[in-house]
Request: fold
Amino acid sequence: MPPAGPEDHRRGEGPELVVYADLGCPYCASAWAEISAREATIVFRHFPVASKHARAPALHAAAEAAGRQGRFFEMVDSLYADRAHADDPHLWQRAEQLGLDLERFEADRRSEAVAARVRRDFESGIRAGVTSTPAIFPGRA
Amino acid sequence: MIAAGEPAPDFTLRNQDGEKVSLSGFRGQKVLLVFYPLDFSPVCSDQLSVYQEVKPEIEAKGVTMVGISVDSGFAHKAFQEKLGIDTPLLADFEPKGEVARAYGAYIDKTGHANRSLVLVDEEGTVEWVHESPTPLEIPGANLIFDALS
Reply:
């Protein structure tokens, strides 16, 4: 597994936990509050499995686009807190609530750069042997 | 379990659409046989879903991937539709598990195949094998790419 670097999404302090998660995954959603509450630096890596969760690519793109406006984890928290509203209008609503520039959010989430960023995380998960989510690896102590 | 270097036993099974598929029909290209226990089981669903995500990369390396379990073609069709996958699924249905037995991948006491991967080369020879310690353990797709590199 590639070690966490400056390009990763990180939150918290303490030893690193590298979390491969699917934003469409109910198991991830139920575990997210507990994972987030740990005294650790949470390193979030995208692992959308579209064949299991059809909206996963859109949700990961939305989180990544929010991240480009500094609100990555806020969008992740929002998506996991309410999985029942995942259509595009709901994503716009969430973006508005987070105070994002909607036009930029919309352009970013549909961009190739965002798709490539998500895919890069996914491929690193594949290389690390991830087969289901959430998959948690210890990082730097 | 069959070993690398051995000839891959030929077989003809029906796929999810009822069409006959023979291993010998893939001669000249590599084939990855993905033996798995049962359609619709949670672990098999995770495995086939993740493999579907990397199927284009596997195919880009000149490899055709097929799943094999003891389920019927009708079950395979429903399983494919449920998962939204297009990996061909072959029915090792009658005689039950005959192909899995030929590859040494059958578990008698549970009545289904162990989770096993067999890479067959262009000449029909086994090139690489991975057998999971238990059916509950999914071989990561990284193992496939390691085998193909």
Residues 112-127 of chain A form the longest helix (16 residues). Chain A has six helices and four strands.
